[in-house]
């Protein structure tokens, strides 16, 4: 709150309220394991006890099958672009050169996709089915957060056929 | 009184209340509770018509925080869902209203809140108006102390009168394994604890913690198949008062009195003391004096049994506290209350509240027999 030393001379039209609420979030054991693994350039998912589907990042419980996901499994750090868009406006909080490509990438071994940036290629070259791989921050600079993967880049492999990824959007 | 639809609680589950669960997010705490509540009444996800959750985004520390709970509630394929920024007892009331309207036959009611992630006193300050009261830094402990001073002056209560009510809760609560505080204590011990905000001592404040809880409601025809001893809703009503603390007599709870009057009339009763047990959401012993007065009860009397669970002084998981009152009534009237069972209990009153100094109050009357034939 600002300290008022003088009575206001103008009519009061607004009240300036400052809300400050600190939070100390619990990551949860699954998310903690996932973030720790990123530091070691590994990506973890969890397998649904009922359907065998693999969620990345791992969840303790499948909202789809309404069943626990008891097993943590490692998935590949490469996968397939399932859908994408080309962003021409700046995003709050990140300093990215425009335009850039935001994509969903289905990692090999995972049944749902994760959000990723695609770089080291022209935006117009990105396409559904494109094979991409993670570009990690160098050793010693990874902190166990989502920015440990800087972005994904094309691998040059042949495109994946739609039937391999359309159910993993 | 109009003939209403018989609706019963057929299942309840909760996690033991803890100060902080370091291993699980709110959704991860809720998942096993929903599973346990459904398993206990032999229901699958598809047996539930409707779902509703009580939580607050301020406690979650993110907008639309409640949406994460959908993952834990069996929300696929999608079904009708609601959320209240209120204690989930109010969600149970809304689900009951929907059942009266014939909109559903079964409902899942959940509560969640990672209370330890934020600062409840700071958060609940924002329940007050942003012009005059919130900027003063008034928090729920300070407002409860203002209220306590008023009721102590009007009813001529002493510190000892608060200590005795607190000790009764603590002794009952020692037998409830779901409580955060499980040590019985004497009035002398509690009256020796320091003042936090005079006249409220440390032992007169609720035991704030976190949990997840889930109640299953079912209408007649289905309830009997889901539960051997369903606990039927005989009456329910809720009434709100003005927000501004200066605009009402904080030493009384007129909304509790009116809500109880109507809920009891719906149940075919004249007075709350016709119940065998009463579960209150009063957060302090002073508030318990106020709510008891509104219900026509004496907080020092042993009939009806007040707060056999131990009440909020032994566990106050915000957003869950009122729903747990209904859960306790279910456990008591369906023979699942273990060591703290009230012998022969057949009728109960459950009270829930929201806001500073009992701003909004909800009263349920429940029984082990159907209300309407």
Shape descriptor of chain B: globular
Q: What's the β-strand tally of chain A?
A: 10
Strand content of chain B: 15-25%
- Tell me the major beta sheet of chain B: 10 strands, mixed
Estimated share of beta-strand residues of chain A = 25-35%
For the largest beta-sheet of chain A, the strand count, sense and barrel status come to:
5 strands, antiparallel
What does this structure look like?
The complex is a heterodimer of chains A (169) and B (373). Chain A is mainly β and 169 residues long. Helix content of chain A is 7%, strand content 30%. In chain A, the strands form three sheets. Chain A has a five-stranded antiparallel sheet with strand order 8-7-6-9-10, with no helix packed on it. Chain A has a three-stranded antiparallel sheet with strand order 2-1-5, covered by helices on one side. Chain A has a two-stranded antiparallel sheet with strand order 3-4. Chain A is extended, with a radius of gyration of 21 Å. The model of chain A has no long low-confidence stretch (mean pLDDT 93). Helix content of chain B is 31%, strand content 20%. In chain B, strands 3-2-4-8-1-9-14-13-10-11 form a ten-stranded mixed sheet, with helices on both faces. In chain B, helix 5 crosses helix 10 and helix 6 packs across helix 10. Chain B is globular. The mean pLDDT of chain B is 96. The chains are: A mainly beta (169), B alpha/beta (373).
Offer a concise description of the structure.
By secondary structure, chain A is mainly beta. Chain A is built from one helix and ten strands; from the N terminus they run H-E-E-E-E-E-E-E-E-E-E.
